[in-house]
Amino acid sequence: MAGKKHEESFAQYKARLIDPISNSYCAAKWLNATIWLGNGQTTSCHHPLGHQIDAKELLTNPSAIHNTPHKKLMRKMMQEGQRPQECEYCWKIEDIGRDNMSDRVYKTAVFEESDVLRTAKADWQENTMLKTLEVSFDRTCNFACSYCNPSFSTTWVKDIHKFGPYRNIDGDARSHFINEADHAKPLPEDINPYSQAFWRWWEEGLADNLEEIRITGGEPLMAPGVWKLFEWFRNNQERATNRPDGKVLRYAINSNLVPKDDIMDKLIEYSQFVPYMEVYTSCESFGAHAEYIRDGFEWNKWIANLTRLHTEGNIKKTHMMMTINSLCLASIVQFMDQMMEFKKIHNTVYPTMSLNILRFPSFQSCAMLPTEIRQKYKDLLQVWLDNQIAMDFRTTDGKQMFMSIEREQTQRLIDYLDVIKTPHKNVKDIEQNRRDFKQFYAQYDVRRGKSFRNTFPPEFVAFYDSIQTELPTADEIITGNYRAGVDLIPDHPPEDPSKDVFFNQDLQ
Question: Which domain holds residue 488?
């Protein structure tokens, strides 16, 4: 961690550097961005909702793909110690207690202390240069994960196009399952003002000031812009390596690691031209559970390709992004065991595991599960965590394989399962969300050729069976001819919890 002293805990770092600035400061609002170039939206990290970039401002200021009026107002709030509503994820984690560290701490700690202090004192209206950037070129993807949606996956678009909207779902994020997300349809490259602004800013200084560019998706390996960047690194190795700040430009990719074989071969080949490359991949459950949740996923191929990265690719680090949803609990311990075994086999601390707790859609959140299921897996996780700490597996050069940030995030999940009763303040009635849960997975099974009942343990099936709601038949789902009472598509907009001031309702 760049700004965190080696001997410091994250709690000590927060108390020393962040708290004196304000009780809501997060460096990501200045120094990090997520930008969807396909349709021109941006946010500061993956938690807040995206907002539209002003295409007209880009004509004179390409940095406006990051420095939007909205972000500047959020910066002002943070400097003044106010909690931006869109950052509810972090406030909820912090308000659990037990000194749980939210992502604003982790996302601040990656930056140099001098950059943190500079942004803390900067005029909130000032345009800032990014240090880390997540960018998506388009939404092309060969997966259609259950918690994803057409905004981020063309395979999800095909699902909605083929079968029509999901019916009888009335919670937040409902719109994700009822339309093809035309707002996310990428503009043609030759007329796309956001893509043009990116490449202009890239050459005008972004490439020389960035510390890391990370490509998200969709599936990045299916996006032409990713390979354009690979070519840039191939042709600019000196520029990427010998920089005024003395740092090497890092190139990171989020990939599901289940592409066609020739694309995987190409990734291995082109990694040789990148001086410092990292790969992020996603999974949070084991075997058949993972293949159910992440439609398109192939467990054996994924493990094989993860192994290839470590043995054949010029890859410095790999990271495991775990999206903690209700169904992954069924085999999360087995999955984390598998990751620890992978580390032991390859004598490495990688892939590092990050446990990101899903809030939307609420009906897929862990908070919607009955107490007895949450208690069971909370206890299993606690035993697993205690065992890992006790065993203290290390690499041959003495590094802890199960890193401190992994320990802290595992404990954070355990506390979340124990305390949090709703994913967020504005969540609908829990019974409605459970009806949404059953409605969604019943329809998902038919559309995707899966079986909830044959995949998950008895306690999950019993929970599913206990939910009272009238389901459409398989024929109705396939043909689109629904009988009265099972064809509801609510015509009111879904709630947006980011628009209300957050308070920790769970702890009242």
Answer: 161-178+426-507
d(CA 38, CA 172): 25
* SS3 category, 177: helix
| The last residue of a domain, from among 342, 357, 391 | 342
Same domain, residue pair 172 and 207 = no
Closest to 159 (Cα-Cα) out of 181, 174, 138, 137: 181
From residue 296, alpha-carbon distances to 25, 260, 338 in Å are 39, 12, 20
Q: What is the phi/psi pair of residue 482, to 5°? A: -95, 145
C-alpha–C-alpha distance, residues 221 and 269, integer Å: 13
- Taking the alpha carbons of 195, 200, 201, 203 in that order, is the dihedral positive or negative? positive
- Are 277 and 271 contacting, i.e. CB atoms less than 8 angstroms apart? yes
- Looking at the fold, whether 135 and 22 belong to one and the same domain comes out as yes
pTM (two decimals):
0.86
Give backbone dihedrals phi and psi of 36, rounded to 5 degrees, phi first: -100, 100
Tell the residue number behind the tokens 């190795």, with chain if given.
237
Residue 63 three-state SS: helix
Count of beta carbons in the 10 Å neighbourhood of residue 400: 15
Mean pLDDT computed over every residue of the chain = 91
Residue 245, phi then psi, degrees to nearest 5: -85, 0
**Which residues does the chain have with pLDDT short of 50?**
496-508
